[in-house]
């Protein structure tokens, strides 16, 4: 039965390559059918482009074969898929169990059967590569059309209808194939027999981290405990301040110091942190009369330390982002695509426990906006221990559009159309399952609400236009501004997908918090600008999973297992990286690289017992 499903995948992936071959073949005919009177330099340029496209096509075919082989070797030898496929394709399969190439199991919801790490890695890689191929083919077809039109205007006019046909094929057949593949890969994670295990493992690991943090923050004797003092009043916005606090908590966890939060005269709320969120400890919230030394102290032996902002941190410890505790990594890699995001999500889950008044504010806003829980459908979103959200509920998509304080400083202007394009693509996929089109809009520009309702009348837009007046720089440090940003981040993080700019602290913060309420939401975003980063991070590593030979045009060579610093992903199927081995910077195909987890030895807190199955 796994062979049947693999054949479906490989046939559809093969069709993608066939479409690419169509573009190359058509272009070849145009080239060889040209008049001998045309310029030789044009001939040379076009021939070079053809050679480049043919090389890319060879790489895509190799990639397709590699995926097919690896799926057969490790990806689909999983238990539950036999029962699922027997339901779907019973006439094609013999009934005798011994003839099935899959192992039988006792229950489709067995939480004791864990997936191989290789299977999870390959499943996520295929999903990402489908997106990369979509970007690559789309951008190449558009580029080819522009180049032919500029170099050969007369010929371009004659073959215009053929080019339109190629573009139509790319936009329809490939787009539909891409949607189906992403949809099937998503469903595969539900029916492969491991979904119950993933959810159970996510719950258990989250519970372990929350208990470790509670243990650290509630020492038996506060006066004897090692303490790390963190001041909340960093002169920046709310998202930046929360990221600063999370950095403090990570250092406290790594050094086994109880974190003492100094939030007096907090810029966002003069009453301090504890009037908005729960205190970080039940019995140790004050630094008392003890003597404190500025980090890193003397020989690391100081009992009490004052932690500076990460911008001024000397002798940085190994725990800084994007490091992940070594004891968690093997377990995380089996159910999450970006372990650091899960780790920081757990830190934020502990820190951002609302006071009763804050929870009331959120609930009243949800009722007023018509934002009702549960709102997420297909994702296995963990609401309560051992309990998943209703899979039949409508999707609510979130869009974070920010235009005031970041423009001309950290981020460029992006139009409504740029934000809505990934929304449209996402809902085009979900329409296979009959989901409702809804968006939660977080923005500092009130005109965006009107613009989206006019240009996209089929969408239900949820948001608070009246709160926009409190998003200006002049009103930033006010209770109304705090309420607005709290609500936006809450609703953004309770989404199934986020469209934002990662140059925005709010966009990154919502993406991080989202991880604490989903089994794996690592791919549940679309950033219009930056790759994900954490302020003060030491590095962001990727690794090469396929070799690459540069063809010039700003590309660099890769060997398998090369470690890379990621700079940017482009929407044409390429990424800008620095190869640590060679020291060279340049472009590489996105499907040839993947995220590399930075595993670091943290304390394991043996006093906190592991949860029993």
Automatic annotation (TrEMBL):
<dbReference type="InterPro" id="IPR001452">
    <property type="entry name" value="SH3_domain"/>
</dbReference>
<keyword id="KW-1133">Transmembrane helix</keyword>
<protein>
    <recommendedName>
        <fullName>Alpha-(1,6)-fucosyltransferase</fullName>
    </recommendedName>
</protein>
<keyword id="KW-0328">Glycosyltransferase</keyword>
<feature type="transmembrane region" description="Helical">
    <location>
        <begin position="12"/>
        <end position="33"/>
    </location>
</feature>
<dbReference type="GO" id="GO:0046921">
    <property type="term" value="F:alpha-(1-&gt;6)-fucosyltransferase activity"/>
</dbReference>
<keyword id="KW-0808">Transferase</keyword>
<dbReference type="InterPro" id="IPR036028">
    <property type="entry name" value="SH3-like_dom_sf"/>
</dbReference>
<feature type="region of interest" description="Important for donor substrate binding">
    <location>
        <begin position="402"/>
        <end position="403"/>
    </location>
</feature>
<keyword id="KW-0812">Transmembrane</keyword>
<feature type="domain" description="SH3">
    <location>
        <begin position="537"/>
        <end position="598"/>
    </location>
</feature>
<feature type="coiled-coil region">
    <location>
        <begin position="36"/>
        <end position="70"/>
    </location>
</feature>
<keyword id="KW-0728">SH3 domain</keyword>
<dbReference type="GO" id="GO:0006487">
    <property type="term" value="P:protein N-linked glycosylation"/>
</dbReference>
<dbReference type="InterPro" id="IPR027350">
    <property type="entry name" value="GT23_dom"/>
</dbReference>
<feature type="domain" description="GT23">
    <location>
        <begin position="224"/>
        <end position="528"/>
    </location>
</feature>
<dbReference type="InterPro" id="IPR045573">
    <property type="entry name" value="Fut8_N_cat"/>
</dbReference>
<keyword id="KW-0175">Coiled coil</keyword>
<dbReference type="Pfam" id="PF19745">
    <property type="entry name" value="FUT8_N_cat"/>
</dbReference>
<comment type="similarity">
    <text>Belongs to the glycosyltransferase 23 family.</text>
</comment>
<keyword id="KW-0472">Membrane</keyword>
